[in-house]
């Protein structure tokens, strides 16, 4: 993990948040390569689950939402983690993470009292900061971020930063039905930032205060659609996306079902698609059968009837929902972990070329020969009309290959003296390191073909 974090900083994928002011825990910024990679993941997700489907439409709801939204959804009351403080050094941690780290016991779904007993009765559970075993009681800590709007403080102006993108889709359900041509079963999909007041040290962007989610609410009538069948179909679509579209190694993936204690209050069945991160198998993508809990709650709290008439049965129903929900930043961390390869002479990110921040890099063999630089710049300008390309004229050619391998650029093109004679260049493949000489005019179709 440390090696991946170092590469991310060195090559402009991920920087610690507010770094020049000493950093801000659990926040991160994305550099030039990271911003491109995030964008590629988002675009693939949106293309696959919205553009390529007849039955899913997109939405982009507000990040700041009315306090009633979160009361209705149950988040102001129930969206909380169990926290504990070290009395000696005041270090704060999630109680479940503390137990898992120290004695490797899985405690998902345990009550506050049960967690408290495990910690108090186990002398091995010491503070990771000061080493003492001197803990406060375990208590609940709500994860929602409150915001005060306008100049008046107090309950009237209280709103929340959304803790999940899902609620935007429930509160706009009627808007979408009335303004588009959707028919049950159909999905609303959204990509966007969510905010949670998480207290967890380490593991880079795995768990942060601010993160991006890709969520789909797939609405259906339980009388005409079988929820178990839909649940399995969506699981297959998630698996296919990860293994085929992102190219992740199947051996590093597994499903885990939540038991009754662990399941969220709104869910009848939940499974996590877990990835084997450098720190172990952890949740990447969850799928839950949320029934019609959310639409029912919002109907009650808003006094607006959110039920619709199912055209197949002509009956008024409150649709049920299956929800696949993934973290885009967590997907980015998975992709970096899966593609990070240490070879004898280099580190290389063997990214799926579709995800690579830059598809090609163009170099002049020697940076101090204007005729080579000019020719290389011309090729660079032509290529970037077709795909994202970088120009690199710094250092020597070996260092440039080394840098592009670490960024995961699939193809490097070098302009040398032979180019000036016969309009050919060398193109080097990132994974095999093999070079072939090709005509400049053939470069674009060749690379487009390789990108698939
Ligand atoms: N609407 C359901 C929901 O939000 P969740 O399991 O809490 O479910 C869905 O979140 C996904 O969002 C997770 O599987 C994870 O990938 C991502 N996620 C959740 N909290 C996160 C955090 N603090 N930082 C980064 N990603 C997070």
Structural description of this entry:
It is built from 15 helices and 24 strands. With 452 residues, the chain is α+β, with helices and mostly antiparallel strands. The strands form 7 sheets. A 7-stranded mixed sheet has the order 3-10-11-17-14-13-12. A 5-stranded mixed sheet has the order 21-20-22-23-24, sandwiched between helices. The model has no long low-confidence stretch (mean pLDDT 94). The structure holds glycyl-adenosine-5'-phosphate (GAP). Glycyl-adenosine-5'-phosphate (GAP) binds next to strand 11, strand 14, strand 17 and helix 11.
What order do the helices and strands come in, and which of them pair?
Layout: H1 2-10, E1 14-16, E2 28-30, H2 32-51, E3 56-59, E4 64-66, H3 67-73, H4 75-78, E5 80-85, E6 92-94, H5 95-103, H6 112-120, E7 139-142, E8 145-148, E9 158-161, H7 166-171, H8 173-179, E10 186-195, E11 210-220, H9 227-245, E12 253-257, E13 269-277, E14 280-291, H10 293-302, E15 308-310, E16 315-317, E17 320-327, H11 328-339, E18 340-342, E19 347-349, E20 360-364, H12 370-383, E21 389-391, H13 397-407, E22 411-415, H14 417-422, E23 424-429, E24 435-439, H15 443-451
Parallel strand pairs: 3-10, 20-21, 20-22
Antiparallel strand pairs: 1-2, 4-9, 5-6, 5-7, 8-9, 10-11, 11-17, 12-13, 13-14, 14-17, 15-16, 18-19, 22-23, 23-24
Bound molecules: glycyl-adenosine-5'-phosphate (GAP).
Glycyl-adenosine-5'-phosphate binds next to strand 11, strand 14, strand 17 and helix 11.
């Amino acid at each position: 993990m440390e090696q991946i974090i170092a590469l991310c900083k060195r090559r402009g994928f991920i920087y610690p948040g507010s770094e020049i002011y000493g950093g801000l825990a659990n926040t991160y910024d994305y550099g030039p390569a990271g911003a491109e990679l995030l964008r590629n993941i988002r675009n693939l997700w949106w293309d696959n689950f919205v553009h390529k489907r007849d039955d899913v439409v997109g939405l982009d709801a507000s990040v700041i939402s009315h306090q009633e939204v979160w009361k209705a959804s149950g988040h102001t009351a129930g969206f909380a983690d169990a926290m504990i403080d070290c009395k000696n050094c005041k270090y704060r941690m999630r109680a479940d993470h503390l137990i898992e780290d120290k004695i490797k016991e899985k405690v998902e779904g345990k009550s506050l009292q049960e967690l408290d007993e495990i910690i108090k009765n186990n002398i091995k559970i010491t503070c990771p900061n000061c080493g003492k075993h001197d803990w406060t009681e375990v208590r609940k800590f709500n994860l929602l971020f409150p915001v005060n709007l306008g100049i008046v403080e107090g309950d009237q102006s209280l709103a929340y930063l959304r803790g999940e993108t899902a609620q935007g889709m429930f509160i706009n359900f009627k808007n979408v039905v009335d303004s588009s041509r959707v028919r049950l079963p159909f999905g609303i999909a959204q990509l966007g930032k969510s905010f949670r007041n998480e207290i967890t040290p380490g593991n880079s962007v795995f768990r942060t205060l601010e993160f991006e989610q890709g969520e789909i609410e797939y609405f259906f009538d339980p009388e005409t659609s079988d929820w178990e069948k839909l649940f399995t179909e969506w699981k297959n679509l998630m698996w296919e996306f990860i293994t085929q579209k992102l190219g992740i190694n199947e051996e590093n993936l597994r499903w885990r079902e939540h038991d009754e204690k662990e399941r969220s209050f709104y869910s009848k069945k939940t499974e996590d698609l877990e990835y084997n991160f450098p720190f172990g198998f952890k949740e990447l993508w969850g799928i839950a059968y949320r029934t019609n809990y959310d639409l029912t709650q919002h109907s009650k709290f808003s006094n607006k009837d959110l039920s619709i008439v199912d055209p197949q049965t002509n009956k008024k129903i409150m649709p049920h929902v299956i929800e696949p929900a993934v973290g885009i930043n967590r997907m980015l961390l998975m992709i970096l972990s899966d593609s990070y390869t240490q070879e004898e002479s280099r580190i290389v990110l063997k990214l799926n070329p579709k995800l690579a921040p830059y598809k090609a890099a163009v170099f002049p063999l020697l940076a101090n020969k204007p005729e080579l630089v000019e020719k290389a710049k011309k090729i660079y300008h032509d290529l970037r009309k077709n795909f994202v390309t970088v120009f690199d004229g710094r250092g020597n050619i070996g260092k440039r290959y080394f840098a592009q391998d670490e960024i995961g650029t699939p193809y490097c093109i070098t302009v040398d003296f032979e180019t000036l004679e016969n309009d050919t260049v060398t193109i080097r493949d990132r994974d095999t390191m093999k070079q072939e000489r090709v005509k400049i005019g053939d470069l674009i179709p060749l690379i487009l073909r390789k990108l698939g």
